[in-house]
Structure formats: structure tokens, C-alpha cells
Amino acid sequence: MTRLREMVSWQTTWGDGVIVGDVTVTPQSKALVMHAPFGGLVWNRPVAVLVQRGELTERIPIVDVTRIAQLGLLALSVVFTVVIFILSAGKRRS
Amino acid sequence: MSEDTDKVLDSVIESQAQNLELMEKLFAVAQPGAVYGEPVASGEYAVITASEILVAAGSGYGVGGGPGAETLEAEAAVEGEEDERTGFGGGGAGGGVSMGRPVATINIGPNGVQVQPVVDVTKIGLAFFTTIGAMLMMLGRMRRASGG
Fold first, then answer.
1. DSSP state, B81?
2. How many domains does chain A fold into?
3. Spatial distance between the Cα atoms of A58 and B113, rounded to a whole number of angstroms
4. What is the pLDDT of residue B72?
5. How far is Cα B137 from Cα B125, in angstroms, rounded to an integer?
6. What CA dihedral angle connects B19, B20, B22 and B23, to 10 degrees?
7. Burial class (CB in 10 A: 0-12, 13-18, 19+), B40
8. Helix and strand tally (H, E) in chain B?
9. Within 10 Å of residue A49's Cβ, how many Cβ atoms?
């Protein structure tokens, strides 16, 4: 288990803040890092930005609309397949 | 050690160093700097792009060698003939894949900070038509099953 944890890890990291006027924007990203003896994989994606304006701090999440749409369509097809399977099984029985 | 062995070992060390360098470059992608672009400023406004990145790489190396000259000399002395076949060899290969996709733009202005998503219509369209195709196929199968 420890070896697996060493090989696969989720890293949430904050980047350097960008100052524009009186606003400081700090980006956050989440990366899946997989180590292998002779290779590796890194999947890094933006998660949110931390907006600081004076005393006020706000976290704005970054929504991946394309990924949500893809997953939604995948879920739809899975649900459809299950429904069709149940319906056809019911028909066969009757 | 023979010259051949030294050459093979040198190439293995060189390959390992190159592999390490490659891995360092690969894992640098895990930093936020790889995902967020440099801010592009114009007057009071600035835009930062945010992208999703996937990088995978792998490499392998193998070495091998034949029997040494001393062994063969001993064998040749027994058999009465001389055979000088010996040698070492190695080979390596590597491959990788990288993918990047814009996810959103962060717009900073006097009115505040807005995160605008970037919609990949092509990807969604492909997923949509694949889903429709799968649904139609399932319906066809169901009709055939209920008809037969």
C-alpha cells in the first residue's frame, strides 16, 4: 500500500500570485502523478483561483464544461444501456 | 574489462542519465506553471489561460553479451580449433504522449475576476454522436431480440 502511494499521488499545488491593479490572483492546480521504474504519467488540471482584493478573499472554482458534458453523455449512454437491458430482459421473461 | 564491455556500460549510464533528465522534465509538468499561462495584460485588463495537460512517457533498455574470449579459447583448445566469437550489445527504446486542452480563461479587470470556460464543441459533438450511435445500436439489438 505504501509502495502504491509512492507510485501514485494526487498533488494540489498553488502557483505564484499574479498582481493586476489591487487584485492578486493565485492559481491552484491538481495533478495526478504516477511514477514507474522507467516512465511516468502526469495529469495536471486547473482547479481554482484564489482572488484577493484588500481584506476580501474569494475562491473561484474552474469548471471544465467539456469534461462535464463528456461525462454526462457517458452517464446517459450507460443509463440507457441499463434501461434497455432491463426492458429486453422483462420482455423475454413475459 | 574489455573495450566492448566499457562501451556497453557507458551507453547504459548515458541512457540512465537521459532517462532521469526526461523524468525530471515530465514531473515538472505537475507544477501549476505548466497549467496556467503567463498573464497577457492590456491596460487595466489581464487574461490568464488555464489548460489541462496530460504527459506520459516510458523507456526501456536492455544489454546482453556472448561468452568471453577466455572461455572460447579454452573450448577451442579442447576442440582443436580457434573461435573468437564474443561480444556485447544493447538497445533501448522510448515513447511518450502529451495532450493539452484549454479549459478556461481568467479575466481580471476593474469589474472583478471572471472565469470563462472554454467549450470544446468538437469533443462534445464527437461524444454526442457516439452516444446517439450507441443508443441506436442498443435499440436495434432490443428490437431484434424481442422480434426473434
1. S
2. 2
3. 10
4. 58
5. 18
6. 120
7. exposed
8. 4, 4
9. 26
Regarding pTM above 0.90, the answer is no
pLDDT at A66 over 90: yes
Tell how many helices (H) and how many strands (E) occur in chain A. 2, 5
Same domain, A81 and A55: no
> Which among B52, B123, B146 has CB closest to A70?
B123
What is the C-alpha to C-alpha distance for residues A87 and B4, in angstroms, rounded to an integer? 70
- Percentage of chain B exceeding pLDDT 90: 22
The residues in A 40-59 lying below 8 A from B, measured between CB atoms, are 40-46, 49, 51, 53, 58
Interface pTM, i.e. ipTM: 0.80
| Same-domain pairing of A56 and A68 | no
Residue B97's nearest CA partner among A8, A42, A50 is: A42
